[in-house]
C-alpha cells in the first residue's frame, strides 16, 4: 500500500491563528503516525485578498511550530490552466451556464423572493442563486459575453445531480450534527454554485478537488466549517472522474463566547502569541493537541 497523503491548505489572506495551527498540526501528526506524507498547498486564487507577505508568514509560522513539508509547495495561482480545462470539460457536457447578475442585483432578487416566502439558504447561510440565467437563449449568452459583461460560470445543480446520483463520503471525524461514517452528500443544498468567473477561471470548490486528486491526497483533514462543502466536492469528483479521499472534519477552535476563531473575531495570530512569549508546546496545548 502506498503511504497515505495529508495536506494543509491555507489561504494567504491573513496571518495563521490557533484554528490553523490545530489543522496543520493534526495533519502533520497523522502523517507521522501513519508513515504518511505531509504536503502544504497555498490556496491563493483570490488575488484581491491574498498577499505575498501572508504566504511568507505561513512558511515561517509553520516552521516555528516544528512542521516540515515536501517541496516544491503547490500554489493554486500557478495551476489556472488545469482548472480551466476542468471547466471546459463540464461545459462541454452542458453542466455549466454563465450568469450575469451583479452581487447587488442578486441581493435585490433575493429580497424580492423573500417578500413572499422564506428563500432557501446554503449550509453557510447564503441565499441560493435566485436568477434565471440558466434559461437564457444561447444567442443572448453569446451577445452578453461578447459585449464584455462580467459573468460567473455556475454548475447546473439539477443536471449535475441527475448525472451523479446518491453520493456518499467516508467521514472519520464528525459533522455539525454528529454525522460519522458513510455520509450522504447533499450537493443540492448549495444550489447552482459558482465554479469560475470571467476574471478567475476557478473557485474554491473546483480547485480543491482537482488539487487533492493531482497531489494524490488520500486523507482530507480540515475544520468542521467545511463539512457540508464536501457534498459539492464529492459531486465534482464524480463528474470529473476523480478519486475520493477519506475525510476527517475536526472541531473548530472557538473563543470564550463560542464564536469560531477568525481574524474578524479578533483571534490572536500565531506570530502575536509568539511575540508574547508562547512556545510551540504552548500552541499545541492551546490547540488542544497532545
Ligand atoms: N483553503 C481553505 C481555507 O483556508 C481550506 C481548504 C481545505 O482544507 O479544503 O479555509
Automatic annotation (TrEMBL):
GO terms, biological process: glutamyl-tRNA aminoacylation
Keywords, ordered alphabetically: Aminoacyl-tRNA synthetase, ATP-binding, Ligase, Metal-binding, Nucleotide-binding, Protein biosynthesis, Zinc
GO CC terms of this entry: cytosol
GO molecular function: ATP binding; glutamate-tRNA ligase activity
InterPro entries in alphabetical order: aa-tRNA-synth_I_CS, Glu/Gln-tRNA-synth, Glu/Gln-tRNA-synth_Ib_cat-dom, GluQ/Sye, Rossmann-like_a/b/a_fold
Family membership: Belongs to the class-I aminoacyl-tRNA synthetase family.
Name used for this protein in its record: Glutamyl-Q tRNA(Asp) synthetase
Amino acid at each position: 500500500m502506498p503511504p497515505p497523503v495529508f495536506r494543509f491548505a491555507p489561504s494567504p489572506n491573513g496571518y495563521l491563528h490557533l484554528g490553523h495551527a490545530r489543522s496543520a498540526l493534526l495533519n502533520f501528526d497523522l502523517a507521522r503516525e501513519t508513515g504518511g506524507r505531509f504536503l502544504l498547498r497555498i490556496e491563493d486564487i483570490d488575488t484581491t485578498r491574498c498577499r505575498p507577505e501572508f504566504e511568507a508568514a505561513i512558511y515561517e509560522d509553520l516552521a516555528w511550530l516544528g512542521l516540515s513539508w515536501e517541496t516544491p509547495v503547490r500554489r493554486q495561482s500557478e495551476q489556472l490552466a488545469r482548472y480551466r480545462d476542468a471547466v471546459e470539460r463540464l461545459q462541454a457536457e452542458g453542466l455549466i451556464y454563465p450568469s450575469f447578475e451583479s452581487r447587488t442585483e442578486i441581493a435585490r432578487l433575493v429580497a424580492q423572493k423573500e417578500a413572499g416566502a422564506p428563500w432557501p439558504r446554503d449550509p453557510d447561510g447564503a441565499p441560493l442563486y435566485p436568477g434565471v440565467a440558466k434559461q437564457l437563449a444561447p444567442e443572448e449568452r453569446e451577445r452578453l459575453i461578447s459585449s464584455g459583461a462580467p459573468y460567473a460560470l455556475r454548475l447546473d445543480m439539477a443536471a449535475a445531480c441527475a448525472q451523479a446520483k446518491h453520493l456518499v463520503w467516508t467521514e472519520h471525524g464528525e459533522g455539525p450534527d454528529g454525522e460519522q461514517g458513510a455520509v450522504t452528500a447533499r450537493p443540492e443544498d448549495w444550489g447552482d454554485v459558482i465554479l469560475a468567473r470571467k476574471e478567475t477561471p476557478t473557485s474554491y470548490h473546483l480547485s480543491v478537488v482537482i488539487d487533492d486528486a493531482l497531489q494524490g491526497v488520500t486523507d482530507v483533514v480540515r475544520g468542521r466549517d467545511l463539512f457540508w462543502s464536501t457534498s459539492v466536492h464529492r459531486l465534482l469528483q464524480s463528474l470529473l472522474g476523480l478519486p475520493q479521499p477519506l475525510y476527517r472534519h475536526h472541531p473548530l477552535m472557538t473563543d470564550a463566547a463560542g464564536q469560531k476563531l477568525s481574524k474578524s473575531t479578533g483571534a490572536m495570530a500565531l506570530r502575536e502569541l509568539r511575540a508574547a512569549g508562547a512556545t510551540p508546546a504552548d500552541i499545541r496545548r492551546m490547540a488542544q493537541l497532545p
